[in-house]
Design goal:
heterodimer; A: alpha/beta; six-stranded mixed sheet; 9 helices; B: mainly alpha; four-stranded parallel sheet; 12 helices
Chain lengths: 290, 291
């Protein structure tokens, strides 16, 4: 964070090479250099930025373990600015996770394992990955943050949980393939994500950083459209097209406080009521005769 | 039935209103497809593509997209008429070549077709048409090797779903930019991309004999087929739901049968499973492995 209470965030809208971790790591170094030169305090890479997305049976070959030497190289990216990147993480019990890692000052600060693994239509993630089992926020140098990877945001509860933890910012690394052609100048997926991300920012009065990748894998196009949204739902910066780009935005962090004074939605949220009602729903579901 | 690309009839392609759900934003689609060609060709180490240019709307559109993606000098259009092909098709193909400034090679396939069928003079038109499509494929793959260019396909979604093409013939390619566009969408994009209007508007034909028409052979108009496929394939309507929308039962059943019966053309050959990792069943790697 800068002395004036502003934070410069960067979204690295890149095109990772599929299954080529070394090449992608080198490219991460280049983008970190570029973002550092541009004065960014935080740089977000897309989902699975270190490996590419449609890995299929390449998942085990692409994985890193938290005790791998490569972890030192990844952490080393964050000496001058905080870095969020995507990787396949293998746990000691040999489960593979679609993970997003947050590094700061040369250290791993947080690791989010994607909880909701899309396995329908063109997606097959549960065939290759194990699901994460938690949504947790964490403290950064500029406030409380949470990470949701791509499909995680298509479940209202994930963002809701982070919100009740008091996050100032939600970071969503994504590898969203574009589809849905109509007469609209944007793809159906771009429309949907714009709607969802802006809705979360406004409902939860939080900054929302959406970083999507670009490029093609086996014919599927990734539509980019990375965006930074303020806690009032306004888009602060967006890369409209599907080219590689560094999207930069300067955030006034005090905007969260002002927005929550104007719209005290979080203050009025009834956590206990919600939990009681959810318990009731769960109870009734388990009592169904068949 | 052989169907190299001029497979569908489109006299009304520009004059009749498009079925709204199949209307496209041509600039957006073109941008994606040009990016697709550039990306999928270059990342596997190629700069060039090779395609069979018939003078129909599908191959003319693909030539146009490829020319924009890679530059006209990196597109080799092979024109491969048979002696009974309509000379107008050749002229249309050459017009596209000239308009785009792409590389061109003309090979009359009559000698190699006729030499083969001298042994089988009773062969019917369908058999001959399939043979022609496969001869053209062997020429394209030879030119692919000779010129270091990927073979770029020209089958559209309607043809692929109906199986109105020759397996290992016109359906063979390394990459296909238009395989997810219905014929009625191909018309829209071709028109917006600058394919000559006469080509967009002419009746689709495999051009195996004079006056051949896709729509006559299929028994239905492409615009109707595409509407039905839109509900059936894209939105998984049931037969009852389709009938309630007003589609005739016989039409629905005929199209569903074609889609089902031609599934094999859209898949690799069936492999007898023996080991624990069988290709394409549990040995699954992306085509773009390492790129």
């Amino acid at each position: 964070m800068n002395a004036d209470g502003r934070l410069t965030v960067g979204l690295a809208q890149i095109d990772p090479a599929l299954g080529d971790r070394d090449r992608n790591l080198e490219r991460h170094r280049e983008w970190v250099g570029q973002a550092t030169a541009a004065g960014a305090n935080l740089l977000v890479f897309p989902e699975l930025s270190l490996t590419g997305y449609f890995l299929k049976d390449l998942v085990p070959d692409s994985a890193i373990r938290l005790d791998d030497p490569i972890m030192g190289e990844l952490a080393g990216l964050s000496t001058k600015l905080d870095v969020v990147l995507g990787a396949v993480v293998e746990d000691p019990d040999h489960r593979y996770f679609n993970a997003s890692l947050y590094f700061s000052h040369g250290e791993l600060v947080h690791l989010h394992r994607k909880v909701y693994l899309p396995t329908y239509g063109m997606f097959d993630e549960q065939r290759y990955f194990a699901p994460g089992d938690r949504f947790r926020s964490f403290k950064t140098g500029f406030g409380r943050t949470g990470i949701l990877v791509c499909e995680d945001i298509w479940h209202l509860s994930s963002a809701y949980i982070l919100s009740l933890e008091g996050v100032d910012m939600i970071i969503c690394p994504s590898s969203s393939p574009g589809r849905g052609i109509t007469t609209d100048e944007r793809l159906g997926t771009a429309e949907s994500y714009n709607l969802v991300c802006r809705t979360y920012a406004q409902f939860l009065t939080t900054f929302f950083l959406y970083c999507n990748r670009v490029g093609f894998e086996d014919g599927a196009n990734f539509w980019g459209g990375s965006m930074v949204i303020g806690p009032n739902g306004d888009i602060i910066a967006q890369q409209e097209d599907a080219d590689e780009a560094l999207v930069l935005a300067s955030l006034d962090l005090a905007q969260v406080r002002r927005e929550r004074l104007a719209n005290p939605l979080l203050r009025d949220e009834r956590l206990e009521l919600t939990i009681n009602e959810l318990r009731r729903v769960l109870h009734e579901r388990t009592r169904k005769p068949f | 039935m052989n169907c190299d690309e001029s497979c569908m009839s489109a006299p009304a392609s520009l004059s009749e209103p498009v079925f709204p759900p199949l209307a496209i934003h041509p600039e957006l689609v073109k941008r994606i497809l040009v990016g697709f060609i550039r990306n999928e060709v270059r990342k596997v180490g190629f700069e060039r593509v090779v395609l069979g240019l018939s003078g129909g709307v599908d191959s003319s559109l693909v030539a146009t997209l490829a020319s924009e993606a890679l530059g006209p000098r990196n597109v080799l259009a092979v024109v491969m008429p048979y002696r009974t092909s309509d000379p107008k098709s050749r002229n249309d193909a050459l017009q596209v070549v000239q308009q785009l400034g792409i590389e061109q090679l003309e090979i009359d396939i009559s000698p190699q077709i006729d030499a083969y069928f001298e042994r089988f003079p009773a062969a019917d038109q369908k058999r001959r048409g399939n043979k022609m499509a496969r001869e053209r494929m062997t020429i394209l793959y030879d030119q692919s090797f000779a010129s270091r260019g990927l073979v770029i396909g020209t089958s559209n979604k309607t043809e692929l779903l109906l199986g109105y093409g020759t397996i290992y013939g016109d359906m063979a390619s390394a990459i296909n930019p238009i395989g997810d566009l219905y014929k009625t969408q191909v018309w829209q994009l071709a028109d917006a991309a600058g394919v000559p209007t006469a080509i967009v508007q002419k009746a689709p034909s495999a051009d195996l004999w004079a006056g051949q028409s896709d729509e006559t052979e299929l028994g239905f108009q492409y615009r109707m087929i595409d509407q039905l496929l839109y509900y059936l394939v894209d939105h998984r309507y049931s037969i009852d739901e389709l009938k309630r929308l007003g589609f005739a039962e016989a039409f629905v059943e005929d199209i569903i049968r074609r889609v089902r019966d031609n599934q094999y053309k859209r898949r690799l050959p069936v492999i007898a499973k023996l080991s624990s990792r069988t290709i394409d069943r549990d040995f699954r790697y992306p085509r773009d492995w390492g790129h």
